[in-house]
Amino acid sequence: MNLMKKLTLKNLKLNRKRTIVTIVGIILATALLSALVTLVSSFQYSMIEYQKQKDGDFHVKFSGVKMSELSEFKNNRNIESTFETMGMGFAKLDGCKNEDKPYAYVMATDEAGFEKGCFNLIEGRMAKNEDEIVIPRHLRTNGRIDIKVGDEITLDIGKRYDSNTESVIWENIAYEHEAETLTDTVTKQYKVVGIMERPGYGMEDYSAAGYTFVTYSNELAAIDNGTKSEESEADNTLTVYSRYTQKALRNKDAVTADIIGVDEKLFAKANNSSVEMSAEESDRFLKEMENAKYDIYINGFLISYECVFPIDGTFKALFTVATVVALIIILTSVYCIKNSFNISITEKIRQYGMLASVGATRRQIKSSVKTEAAMLGVVGIPVGTMSGILASFILVKVVNALSAGWLNFALSFHTSLPALILAVIMSIATIYFSATGSARRAAKVTPLEAIRNTKEIKIKSAKLKTPAIIGRIWGIGGVISYKNIKRNNKKYRTTVTSIVICSVTFIVISYFMSMAFSMVGMSYASVDYNIGINMSCKKDLDIEKLSELLSGIEGAEDYLVGAVYYFDVDKPEYTKEYGEYCGQLYDDSEDVSQEFLITVLNDKSYDKYASDAGIKNADTGAILVNKCTFDVYNEKSSKYVKEEMELYKYKAGDTIRCGYNVYDDASSDDNAVEGDTESSTEDNSGYVDEENINNGVRKTVDVTIAGVTDKVPTCYNGYGNTSLLFMNQKGFESLWADGKSGNEFKPGNAIYSAYVVAENADEYQDTLEKETAENPEYSQISFYVSNMDKQMRDEKSLFTLLGVFAYGLIVVIALIGITNIINTLSTGMELRSREFATLRSIGMTDKQFAGMVRLESVFISVKALVIGVPLGILISYLLCVMMNRMGAVIIYELPYKAIILCIVVVIMLIYAIMKLSMTKLRHNNIVETIKNENL
């Protein structure tokens, strides 16, 4: 070890306090970087595991694969692994209440299928032989067939046959009712050994005619074990679930197109939602898919979570947000370490000058500074990296412990070696460049300037003039404080800049997290209830009586009852923007009427909706929902982009003339609506043609607008782009009171529906069906109940998962900021202890000293916040604009909560640090402090 290295090490030991402060800064910055990459890695891994659990561990599903063709998948270098299922057939279920789903679809698989498929057990175990079977939970909640673990069931399994087309119907095709029968049935007895959640879309489509029952296949197990060749059973048809390699995922469209035998470019274009296909290309693609070798289902979410490059789908927005967050954290951490070094190196200028005066070269001085940085980094980086990993591990474990019982899955702790290496490299680079800049600055100073240490203070006498108000309020201490800030402008600029960066970072990151929630909500959130009910009757129903029924059942936390009536409006008052959009979709749009839905809500739900929308006197008319989001084609970019627009020029007090048809025998129309209560989210402009309008006797009614809003009631989020009006029952009935407007008949064919948030969905459904079956008052009403409890819980779990990591990032940002502020202020105060001791030695009282420190706190806080808050708002707005240009639809909302919290924390933190430092300095011996050359 040469002389300069020994001197550097000795200096670090002598200045232990400053050395510890700098090391702590490096540890915290490195720990935060390591925690960030670990949390992001854990978040991605958890989302992958969530999607595997929800839809299965596969990328593409191929249906209709012959057993003899299985080797083509097993030997395909683009396929990492596969599992297979075999369709045994359909069996009629006696007593099933869902008329659109009357079958059990029996599926067979082996250990690999049970492990990688989305068969999530609730009770019991998986099947281990061909005489055992696992049934889905929704057989009871949707089909109302109660089969328990241990029961023996007998199924007559056969093929679905369509008598009209004289062909076999595949498993995911909707029920054809009278057109289909079961043929070639074989009786099979099973023992129920388990109950599972409903399989995901990839295994059971929501329009499927059968409930998925899963048994074991010895045949598939023998093939996987290599004890049987697939060539011997060429006639059997399988469904192959394939998992692609990482390399194949980057070119998944070409790989899939090659397997099913269609044009690669056309297939890729069809699967790219941002690229428009011509009519000719669409027709050609449909024909190719009709003649494709296999039918496919793409597990798009799992692919988007696993395929980092290129990023596609919904996860693209989340990765964009995460990237911006990572950049902000890295830049803030870089500044934190650099700031710590700058303060330390600046105060050592005198020491470097003394070394230069006794013969040290510039190269040796630079080497001394870099050696010090390396010594500090050797200690700080490993400790910081391990601390970040440990903190992430503890966070995940704590969240899992607190969320046990209400989160559908456990968060997974996962570290990524490349990400950790990147964090370490960034920390090393930060230390190196920070030290290099300081070393270069130290080497340039001449020995005389360095020893005098006057280069840091450059001020003109005119700038030292102090405003009179400062002297009157804070006295001599305030005057000295103001002059000191002017004299040491560079040091105070460093402190203010540090606080500005922390403030901006916190505001921007908080806004981005709220934006991420909004974007994920638009992509995922569709169900905010767990019981959906459709009702049909040959007469009008009383909404309030239905409300009493639903609310009277124990466990109803919230509910809504509505009756939907269809109207049309001739030449509505479009806004210019919406009118142009309609012109893009339809020719001669002025001659086509716009469809409006008037939804009559129960009084409690309507009053709550009006209150949430801020509309007073809502009973006087209808509430118009006047904003929608559309996919608009941008000719410049040749892509579809989402755009939110106002629809009409109507305002409160205006009237809309709504047309409808009255038929000769309107009461005979059965408005039964069967099947799932899930609403369509397809882009539907709501136009109706003249042929539909002129069926029956044409009537009109004038509806007064009580208010205009962009909000919709709970449970109506899925109605797409239809024009919506909401009224209560009293207001709707008043439209026809005493033959008003010459109308004696209301429109028929109302669609009655209800949505309930129940504490226990299964118990609520049982009680509802029991009460409606036993009460003769409801004998003429058909109730179709859909238990959406699992879907609602899944979506809540997803938002919980996102929230944990989102707020975890905010905590990380806050820690960076607080660490940086504490480090900057406390180090600055300690380095000025000789200055403070000198002032006290010439007669400055404790009161004057306190006034001086308080004024400095005010100057620093006000200046930092005046710059930081507007800058944070500007950057968050620019990022919002950037996301909108990338195709998102986000309305900028001022992050006022983050701004208020930032202001309060900065003021309190600066005051607390100054107060503690001031108390500590008062106890220091004045003479010893002045004599201390290490400050």
Shape descriptor:
globular
Task: Please summarize the sheet with the most strands.
Answer: 10 strands, mixed
Strand content: 15-25%
Helicity range of the residues? Answer: 40-55%
- Count of structural domains: 4
Contiguous uncertain segments of 5+ residues? 665-694
Query: Assembly type of the shown chains?
Result: single chain
Q: What is the gyration radius calculated from CA atoms? A: 36 Å
Structural class: alpha+beta
What is the residue-mean pLDDT, rounded to a whole number? Answer: 78
Task: Tell me the span between the first and last alpha carbons.
Answer: 27 Å
SS summary, helix count = 29
Number of E-state strands: 23
Give the helix/strand layout.
Layout: H1 3-14, H2 16-55, E1 60-66, H3 70-74, E2 79-92, E3 103-109, H4 111-116, E4 121-124, E5 132-136, H5 138-141, E6 152-162, E7 167-169, E8 180-196, E9 210-216, H6 218-225, E10 237-244, H7 246-249, H8 252-260, H9 264-270, H10 279-290, E11 295-298, H11 300-306, H12 315-347, H13 349-357, H14 362-403, H15 417-444, H16 447-452, H17 468-487, H18 489-524, E12 531-536, H19 543-551, E13 556-569, H20 576-585, E14 593-601, H21 603-613, E15 622-625, E16 627-634, E17 639-646, E18 655-662, E19 687-688, H22 690-693, E20 697-709, E21 723-728, H23 729-734, E22 751-758, H24 761-774, E23 782-787, H25 789-831, H26 833-841, H27 846-885, H28 896-922, H29 926-931
Parallel strand pairs: 3-9, 5-8, 14-21, 15-20
Antiparallel strand pairs: 1-10, 1-11, 2-3, 2-6, 2-10, 4-8, 5-9, 6-7, 6-8, 12-22, 12-23, 13-14, 13-22, 14-19, 15-21, 16-17, 18-20
Helix pairs in contact: 1-14, 2-11, 2-12, 2-14, 2-15, 2-25, 8-9, 12-15, 12-18, 12-25, 14-15, 17-18, 17-27, 18-25, 18-27, 18-28, 25-28, 27-28
